[in-house]
Amino acid sequence: MGIHLKRAYDPPSSGDGIRILVDRIWPRGVTKEQAAFDLWAKDLAPSAELRKWFGHAPQRWEEFQRLYRIELEQHETALDDLRKQAAAQRVTLVFGAKDRKHNQAVVLKQVIENQT
């Protein structure tokens, strides 16, 4: 399975495979050309309420993961589609957060890999 993570502000590369933006909002200051996203998976991003509550505060990380996983349960078809894509080719989940360890792409990758 080929699931990788990358910030939206890092330049795309030919090794990224399918680039999927997993944020609900477009990354600030990034043009469509710079981003080179193949898909924008808004439905798999955390809800606006959860995103605002979390605020990328590390002390809220454990609870954010729990709540986000509950939200993801409502999107099983989209998760299955993503699992199939990742099984067939390299997939890069792209996120806008500065924190590379505490963001929704980390959780989404875990969910996809653990339920394959």
UniProtKB/TrEMBL annotation:
<protein>
    <submittedName>
        <fullName>Uncharacterized conserved protein YeaO, DUF488 family</fullName>
    </submittedName>
</protein>
<dbReference type="InterPro" id="IPR052552">
    <property type="entry name" value="YeaO-like"/>
</dbReference>
<keyword id="KW-0175">Coiled coil</keyword>
<feature type="coiled-coil region">
    <location>
        <begin position="65"/>
        <end position="92"/>
    </location>
</feature>
<dbReference type="Pfam" id="PF22752">
    <property type="entry name" value="DUF488-N3i"/>
</dbReference>
